[in-house]
Design goal:
Among the domains are: about 140 residues, no CATH class; about 90 residues, Immunoglobulins (Immunoglobulin-like, Sandwich); about 100 residues, Immunoglobulins (Immunoglobulin-like, Sandwich), CATH 2.60.40.10; about 100 residues, Sporulation related repeat (Alpha-Beta Plaits). The protein has about 950 residues and is mostly beta strands. Helix content is about 5%, strand content about 55%. The strands form ten sheets. It has a 24-stranded antiparallel β-barrel. A seven-stranded mixed β-sheet has the order 9-10-3-2-1-12-11. Strand 11 and strand 12 form a beta hairpin. It comes from Marinobacter psychrophilus. GO terms for molecular function: peptidoglycan binding. This is SPOR domain-containing protein. InterPro entries: SPOR-like_dom, SPOR-like_sf.
């Protein structure tokens, strides 16, 4: 986990004994997901959030310096400056300085963490943290630059991918398949002793999930065995997935799988089930499993549970089944936002989150595109079933579907043929389906989905004629019609809060005229640190009515997590059927104590539970005990170890969290001195470098060998791994490339190389010659072309004409002003400069341009300023060479910028009002005058560096640097 650097003065007595709890939060702004996971810490009643990461996500111009415990920048506009000093517990906003509680801030190697309450006071945002769904919702109190951009762009166009993340277009890395790779293994050892009525029973259980490459395919193996029945249960699957659709040649498949697989469900015909078989599909991997429904399923270790959230509301909860799997069947999709979260909770306190987004419009097949899905399956009872489904895009707003299904119904094999149409018309979706069964039975369904205000409305009518299937079983009084209505949305509460509400109603009318009606309603809320979800289910059949309810409440009290659940019935005999309460308290980093009590009123009996867990580090450990007031006593111990091989260093990796279901990357960074892209023996590795995953920071850092292991990568989708440039020691280092795109595979580790080259900067000034006077001109676009005449770098001149082209690697280049812009502005094309960059990091300065109006010619290499203009300035008013010569040679100064024009540097000093702290010196470069602005005189390098980090953003645009006065004085003597 993250190693924290906490200044002693940042902890006060109230929290000296309080343990921090690490969290990963999803960040939302309006309807956009900005990040799948940013780190945060729970400290007592406070949540501490990373200031730098949050500022980057919200496009606020604030940068943090964790090593110095400072931050600086501005909020929205430059006149609203911001500076933070944790050592002095001082923050300055728009010129107003105030102190804050030192316990509400701490530093960590890659960021500064600030309490939510302080961030809301300092920044123009309201922050809403939902602890139950691990989400952070940002409400902007002023329009952020990001919001203006998001308003112009259509975000979230790809299902299953975060909408707020901009594609950086990293080069794609194709990870090769191997005949046999060392698998990653998630394994659990559990033993239990149970004593009741004088008898004692013991049991032991071992489960393992292995994932890796086998025979050139992805493979997974689930193994389970216990003492009572030592014969192991085994499940094996092989296959491949490719989001680009390049599998099996002309079939253009995106996935195929064989072995132990789940059969797909088909609306109104058959439900999914486990068994053996083969499946092949070219459907997008992140597309819903059907037009308006989605199935979530996967592996789940024993003792784990999974919660399903839909649009921030808890809609489902499951434990691992006997085969170590979970399955949420046919989750409906509404018109508009469909955001799902799967939150996995381990028995040892582990937590893992998966996010999915399914805009309904993405279910439409594009015009002319043909999609198919084929499955041949035999369930656990040996009954066969076949499913073939096809979709064709007819136009932008119309698609057709067809299918053939062979499935068992009441131990009889039946066949079905399906036809369907889907269309989007104005602000609604309309669907029609027809199913013909073997023997003449049929089913017709008409559905409509739309939004009314902020409420999603889904309505359908199904008419059956002598139709039977696994969904509509044969009955002496069969269903004739089924009407369904679903409403989901949010009820506003106050200015910034809302209550997610969902209501579903179903009415079945049978041939005899009897109607069966069911209504379920769910409301969720999160307020004052408490999450509540209440669900009611009402069923009526004839004269019989029954209402069941469940109320779930969770709350944090300082560092404790409290959960309770109440099951009850309403009606003529209202009663409480069950009540449960649990409390979790952290005891240290990764250690936790759990206490619980549950009472069932029908028995009646009460169960008391207690446990101790370790959930971080190389292994997870749990010890638990329970006592039932009937006399039963149980004691259990569970050990969890996830393990795998790090391929580059040939080391074993161990983790207390599962790794087999996720991907990994072994990344090596080195300084590529000869620019050949290969790490040669003499080239040093780079340590301490960090990375981003899909734009968010990752905790991995390169070690002394320049190697970092990036774990828990999502699978079945494209993932961008980039270099976190803020973690590189030298600002002149540039990775080539700066990121890689890949599709991680379960249980495999991709070997990635990031050669780092030493770059240089090219700077100069663009002047406009008008009426014999030269002046710097801003907003001109400059282009850097390589030897293939490709534009490889771009920049824009500043207000004074000064420009910088950063991070230029070794090579031959041509630098020019954009010809298109020159023609558009009616300026003379003065040509360009041919440059040779050696790759030793030396700056190339003074590459000046002079442009003119009306086609008049000028020498772009001439002196940029005549003496008449220079004479208009008072020479004695500025600190110049004489002041620089008087400074001690062993002192330090800060060079702010440099230019070939004396007028430009004087204007720069005057504009920033730094005449009394800065000066300029004249030297020569390539035979031309060169003027450097230097700031202050400092006795030590640390003092100069600290001052540099406190400078305003306008003074750091040209990337100032610290230099010795003896260097300045030596340059003056030349």
């Amino acid at each position: 986990m993250f190693a924290l650097i906490v200044h002693p003065q940042h902890l006060f007595a109230q929290y000296q004994s309080t343990e921090r709890e690490f969290l990963l939060l999803e960040v939302r702004l309006d309807q956009s997901v900005l990040s799948n996971a940013i780190p945060a810490y729970e400290l007592g009643e406070h949540t501490l959030l990373p200031l730098g990461a949050l500022a980057r996500l919200l496009t606020l111009a604030i940068k943090t310096q964790p090593g110095q415990a400072t931050a600086s920048g501005y909020i929205l506009t430059e006149d609203r400056g911001f500076s933070l000093n944790l050592d002095e517990t001082r923050v300055t906003r728009a010129g107003v300085t105030e102190s804050f509680d030192p316990a509400l801030a701490l530093t960590e190697p890659d960021d500064i963490y600030i309490a939510k309450s302080l961030l809301e006071r300092w920044l123009p945002v309201k922050l809403e943290i939902n602890r139950s769904s691990l989400s952070l919702r940002v409400h902007a109190l002023e329009v952020l630059p990001l919001q203006a951009r998001l308003k112009r762009e259509r975000l979230g166009e790809q299902a299953g991918v975060r909408g707020g993340y901009e594609n950086p277009n990293y080069p794609h890395y194709e990870q090769p398949y191997r005949l046999l790779s060392m698998p990653f293994i998630d394994q659990t050892f559990a033993t239990e002793l149970r004593k009741n009525d004088g008898s004692t029973q013991t049991d032991a259980r071992y489960t393992a999930l292995l994932a890796g490459d086998l025979l050139g395919m992805e493979s997974s193996l689930y193994l389970s065995s216990h003492k009572q029945d030592p014969t192991p249960d085994v499940r094996v699957a092989l296959g491949r997935r490719d989001p680009g659709g390049d599998l099996l040649g002309p079939l253009r498949a995106r996935s195929f799988q064989l072995g132990s697989i789940s059969a797909p469900s088909v609306d109104n015909v058959t439900r999914g089930g486990s068994g053996e078989g083969v499946t092949l599909s070219n459907r997008p991997l992140t597309q819903p499993t059907s037009f308006d429904r989605q199935v979530f399923e996967g592996d789940l270790p024993p003792g784990w549970d999974v919660e399903l959230y839909y649009n921030d509301a808890l809609v489902g909860f499951q434990l691992a089944d006997s085969e170590g799997r979970y399955r949420f069947e046919d989750q409906p999709l509404s018109y508009g936002r469909n955001e799902f979260q799967l939150i996995f909770n381990g028995p040892l306190g582990q937590t893992r989150v998966e996010q999915y987004s399914f805009p309904l419009v993405q279910s439409m097949v594009r015009p002319g595109e043909f999609q198919y899905s084929l499955t041949e399956h035999r369930d656990d009872e040996g009954q066969p079933r076949s499913v073939a489904q096809f979709d064709l895009g007819l136009s932008r707003y119309l698609s057709a579907s067809a299918g053939f299904i062979r499935a068992p119904v009441d131990d009889t094999e039946k066949q079905y043929t399906t036809l369907g149409l889907r269309t989007f018309w104005q602000s609604m979706s309309i669907s029609g389906d027809f199913i013909q069964s073997e023997g003449g039975g049929s089913l017709a369904e008409l559905g409509m989905q739309t939004r009314v205000g902020g409420v999603a409305v889904d309505a359908s009518r199904t008419r059956l004629s002598d139709f039977a299937s696994a969904v509509f079983s044969a009955h002496s009084d069969p269903i004739r019609t089924r009407d369904e209505l679903r409403l989901s949305g949010s009820i506003p509460v106050g200015e910034r809060s809302s209550l997610p509400v969902a209501v579903e109603a179903t009415r079945d009318e049978r041939e005899s005229g009897v109607a069966n009606t069911g209504v379920s309603a769910r409301v969720s809320a999160y307020a004052y640190g408490t999450a509540l979800t209440n669900t009611l289910n009402w069923r009526a059949s004839g004269d019989t009515e029954r209402t069941l309810g469940t109320l779930r409440i969770s709350r944090r009290v300082r560092d404790m997590s409290l959960r309770s659940q109440l099951n009850y019935t309403l009606g003529a005999e209202s009663d409480i059927s069950a009540l449960a309460f649990t409390a979790n308290k952290p005891l240290g980093e990764g250690y936790r104590m759990t206490l619980g009590v549950a009472h069932t009123f029908a028995s009646p009996q009460t169960r008391y539970t207690g446990g101790f867990t370790k959930s971080l580090g190389r292994y997870g450990l749990g010890v638990n005990a329970s006592y039932v007031d009937t006399g039963e006593i149980a004691l259990g111990v569970q050990l969890f170890v996830a393990m795998g091989r790090e391929p580059r260093q040939d080391d074993w990796l161990f983790d207390a969290r599962p790794m087999a279901n996720s991907g990994g990357a072994s990344v090596q960074m080195f300084l590529d001195d000869n620019n050949n892209g290969v790490m040669d023996e003499h080239e040093p590795p780079l340590s301490g470098a960090g990375f981003t995953v899909n734009g968010g920071p990752h905790k991995a850092r390169t070690n002394a060998a320049g190697v970092a292991h990036i774990n828990h990568l999502p699978v079945k989708q494209y993932v961008d791994i980039g270099v976190d440039m803020s973690t590189l020691e030298n600002p002149q280092w540039s990775p080539q490339p700066d990121g890689i795109n890949l599709v991680p595979r379960p249980g495999t580790v991709a070997k990635l190389e990031f050669p780092v080259r030493l770059t240089t900067e090219i700077d100069g000034t663009v002047y406009l010659l008008e009426n014999g006077v030269e002046r710097g001109i801003g907003d001109l676009e400059l282009e850097l072309l390589n030897d293939q005449h490709e534009v490889v770098g771009e920049t824009t001149s500043g207000w004074d004409g000064f420009y910088i082209v950063p991070q230029v690697v070794a090579g031959e280049y041509w630098l020019r002003i954009s010809p298109q812009q020159l023609r558009r502005l009616g300026l003379t094309n003065t040509g360009g400069h041919k440059l040779t960059v050696s790759g030793d990091g030396s700056f190339i300065s003074g590459i000046n341009f002079i442009i003119m109006l009306d086609g008049r010619q000028s020498d772009s290499h001439s002196s940029p300023l005549d003496t008449e203009k220079s004479a208009r300035y008072d020479q004695d008013y500025f600190r110049t060479e004489s002041w620089a010569q008087e400074q001690p040679s062993d002192s330090f100064t800060i060079q702010l910028m440099a230019a070939g024009s004396e007028a430009t540097v004087k204007q720069y000093i005057e504009r920033h009002q730094i005449k009394h702290t800065a000066g300029y010196v004249r030297t020569s470069r390539r035979g031309l005058p060169w003027y450097s602005v230097i700031y202050g005189s400092f006795t030590s390098y640390q003092e100069a560096l600290a001052t540099l980090e406190q400078l305003s953003p306008t003074l750091t645009e040209a990337k100032p640097w610290v230099r010795r006065f003896n260097d300045v004085q030596a340059a003056l003597r030349q």
